[in-house]
């Protein structure tokens, strides 16, 4: 059978200018067409024109352009070399609404061509990307040892519609991962990344062929506390995200532990003082109920937390960048990075896998903003559109109050692609209330019971459930906060620290100097008396102590890495024996109770830390994890 050239041009309706888009080719029965080189003609990005060589026959050409344009198809009869145009109609004008989107958790590795990245972004309608390591660069190139050169290189490959910046995903340790919307231009970024990967723990402890009884002691963390890096980079202008906060799985081996990507130190960070800027609450799948469950519970503790979406993706896999995204509000009609990040960190945004969810409280307030709780009647107006695929439609629109569904608008039978609704409710005067709006596409929860995220997660502890991962289209807002004038947000803890310094036989030691260090600077010194006692009235949870004395080796310890009760708390989460012992729990499911938030706040409210100088002087400190 003869082959012919098929040129597909995509443009915007009423315009002859080419428009970047994704193009797919199917046979007349709807099956994706395979080219001779085994490339499937499915969602191939182009800048508006693409050429295929295909056997003569009948085809269906499908073009899409992110969430702003309606997906369109055309029937093609190929009998000779031919050119066809597929026109795309505007579905929603994000820029007119002041909405822009970006991605900061991705793995688009060298030698990917930068032009392929920006073409993909323009076809997807992604305004910005913060590229993670290795920054589209060979680690052997001259620019790779200089963060400023890397940042300049990435910004230099940007286009007017696709802005590339330097991001990162590290530190990556047993305590959690950190992604960066904005990463400071540090020196030797590749070398720094290598030193913050906790490789010994993940390669040895998790894969151990024998049970690991005490991973914190048997596989100690040997570098600077990762949260110190995050705090320092934030002080240098960095903007961060905590990714996949409940992610874990099982590896081969008999260690009796999970392989963790859990945000182990996130609750600690809230008590220590706003180290991280945003929290992933949509990721991998459109409906990640355990991400949302953690978020909802912490919101109910009084915190204001900006939720965002992540893909952990690339340009080709099942988790492609842009498949899940956050839209943040900017006042201007063009992308401004600083304004975008400011809105993102304030939660003035919504997360989506496809539906467009526009909301206003009392006609004025955006998600993430705070409204005075006056005990009166209030409204949230909702304008929602389905994913622009013509086969998609809306089913449920849900209003959550303090994490619980209080109203479900069921329009499934009407198969509408656009809908408006006004939620009306009365707030209870004197209390803090927060409201989230969620919209589902044609795949909604199996039952109304499953719309209650908190209850659904509790059910997963008692019986296996994974249905939520099948939901493909969902969107939800950050909270609207209703707070009384006298509402007080949770305070950052600055507890007293005290204890006794002893020798290896338990004898109190006099004249031991303890230097308190915060943010790398000495902020206080005390010397033990005849009882061996020391005390500081107020310390940062991110502080270190430097201990020295005549005849003793000087050493430095931190609350984060070395305070025994906190070591036990962290180990409880990252070792994951709570998961191994409950056969109902599936990978990625971390019950709220595992985070033991009230217990954590209690153990950090008063640091009582006795120090054994014989243990401290050893090169490899072996703690007995006892308070």
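Sequence proposed for the structure above (627 residues):
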């Amino acid at each position: 059978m003869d082959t012919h050239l098929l040129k597909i041009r995509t443009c915007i309706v009423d315009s002859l200018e080419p428009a970047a888009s994704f193009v797919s080719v199917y046979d007349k029965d709807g099956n994706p067409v395979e080219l001779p080189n085994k490339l499937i003609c499915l969602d191939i990005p182009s800048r508006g024109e693409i050429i295929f060589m295909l056997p003569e026959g009948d085809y269906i050409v499908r073009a899409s352009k992110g969430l702003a344009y309606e997906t369109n198809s055309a029937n093609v009869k190929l009998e000779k070399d031919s050119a066809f145009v597929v026109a795309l109609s505007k579905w929603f004008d994000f820029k007119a609404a002041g909405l822009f989107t970006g991605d900061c958790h991705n793995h688009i590795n060298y030698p990917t061509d930068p032009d392929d990245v920006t073409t993909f972004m323009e076809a997807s309608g992604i305004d910005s990307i913060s590229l993670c390591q290795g920054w589209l660069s060979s680690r052997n190139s001259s620019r790779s040892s200089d963060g400023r050169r890397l940042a300049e290189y990435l910004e230099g490959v940007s286009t007017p519609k696709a802005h590339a910046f330097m991001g990162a995903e590290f530190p990556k340790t047993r305590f959690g991962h950190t992604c960066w919307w904005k990463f400071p231009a540090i020196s030797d970024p590749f070398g720094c990344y290598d030193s913050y990967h906790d490789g010994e723990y993940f390669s040895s402890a998790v894969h151990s062929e024998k049970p690991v009884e005490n991973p914190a002691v048997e596989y100690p963390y040997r570098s600077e506390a990762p949260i110190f890096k995050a705090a320092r980079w934030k002080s240098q202008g960095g903007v961060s995200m905590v990714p996949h906060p409940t992610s874990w799985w099982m590896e081969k081996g008999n260690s009796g532990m999970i392989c963790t990507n859990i945000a182990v130190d996130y609750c600690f960070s809230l008590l220590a003082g706003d180290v991280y800027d945003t929290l992933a609450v949509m990721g991998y799948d459109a409906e990640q109920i355990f991400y949302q469950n953690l978020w909802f519970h912490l919101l109910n503790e009084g915190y204001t937390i900006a939720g965002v979406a992540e893909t952990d993706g690339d340009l080709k896999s099942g988790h492609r960048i842009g498949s899940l995204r956050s839209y943040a509000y900017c006042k201007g009609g063009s992308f401004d990075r600083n304004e975008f990040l400011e809105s993102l960190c304030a939660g003035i945004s919504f997360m989506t896998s496809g539906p467009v969810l526009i909301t206003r409280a009392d006609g004025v307030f955006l998600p993430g903003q705070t409204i005075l709780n006056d005990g009166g009647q209030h409204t949230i107006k909702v304008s929602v559109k389905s994913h622009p695929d013509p086969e998609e439609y809306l089913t449920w629109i849900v209003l959550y109050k303090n994490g619980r569904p209080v109203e479900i608008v069921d329009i499934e039978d009407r198969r509408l692609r656009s809908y408006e609704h006004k939620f009306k409710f009365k707030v209870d005067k004197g209390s803090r209330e927060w409201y989230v709006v969620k919209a589902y596409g044609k795949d909604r929860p199996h039952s109304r019971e499953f719309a209650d995220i908190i209850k659904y997660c509790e059910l997963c502890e008692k019986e296996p459930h994974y249905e939520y991962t099948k939901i493909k289209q969902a969107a939800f807002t950050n909270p609207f906060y209703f707070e009384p004038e006298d509402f007080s947000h949770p305070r950052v803890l600055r507890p007293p620290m005290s204890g006794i310094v002893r020798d290896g036989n338990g004898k109190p030691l006099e004249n031991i100097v303890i230097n308190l260090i915060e943010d790398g600077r000495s902020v206080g010194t005390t010397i033990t008396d005849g009882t061996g006692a020391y005390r500081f009235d107020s310390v940062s949870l991110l502080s270190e102590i430097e201990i020295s004395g005549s005849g003793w080796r000087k050493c430095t310890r931190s609350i984060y890495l070395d305070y025994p009760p906190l070591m036990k708390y962290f180990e409880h989460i990252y070792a994951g024996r709570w998961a191994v012992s409950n056969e109902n729990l599936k990978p990625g499911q971390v019950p709220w109770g595992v985070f033991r938030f009230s217990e954590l706040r209690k153990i950090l409210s008063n640091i009582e830390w006795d120090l054994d100088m014989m243990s401290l002087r050893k090169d490899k400190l072996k703690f007995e994890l006892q308070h």
